[in-house]
Write a structure and sequence with these properties.
This protein is 45% helix and 5% strand. The chain is mainly α. Strand 1 (120-122) and strand 2 (125-127) form a beta hairpin. Strands 1-2 form a two-stranded antiparallel sheet. The protein is elongated and about 95 Å long. Helix 2 (17-24) crosses helix 3 and helix 4 packs across helix 6 (81-91).
């Protein structure tokens, strides 16, 4: 926001609201709010990104290559897609060395063979023995 103490100082010096607004690049109403008695010196409103950052970090830790649209669905993002896209780009691992490694089992360790089931029944529908 604007530097409220500096705005008050300029007003105490006798400058007009219009000239103060021009100097600070603020609206005249913003200057009026700043010089109002009891006005705070600072103004802070957390952005939606700050609230969503921990959730995005968690998602990217598990799925580092997930697209922004899917991240938005997982964290129930209802704000600007551009904001979320910038956050994901900032938090996403930059190189393949930073991505978590997946420990896959060797193909030789996988069991192969036949699978046979008992006859299946669902309601009035009956299915005989299955062999896969």
């Amino acid at each position: 926001m604007h530097d409220r103490p500096a705005i008050r100082e300029q007003r105490d010096e006798g400058n007009s609201i219009r000239s103060i607004a021009r100097d600070h690049g603020a609206s005249r109403n913003a200057v009026r709010r700043a010089i109002r008695p009891g006005a705070r010196d600072g103004y802070y409103r957390p952005s939606a990104i700050e609230d969503a950052e921990p959730a995005v970090r968690d998602v990217l830790a598990d799925y580092p290559q997930m697209c922004v649209a899917d991240v938005a669905l997982l964290i129930d993002w209802r704000k600007s897609r551009r904001q979320l896209s910038d956050l994901v780009a900032r938090l996403r691992p930059k190189s393949a060395n930073e991505w978590p490694t997946v420990q896959a089992r060797p193909l030789e360790s996988l069991a192969t063979g036949k699978l046979t089931t008992k006859p299946l029944q669902c309601g009035s529908m009956k299915l005989g023995e299955l062999t896969l």
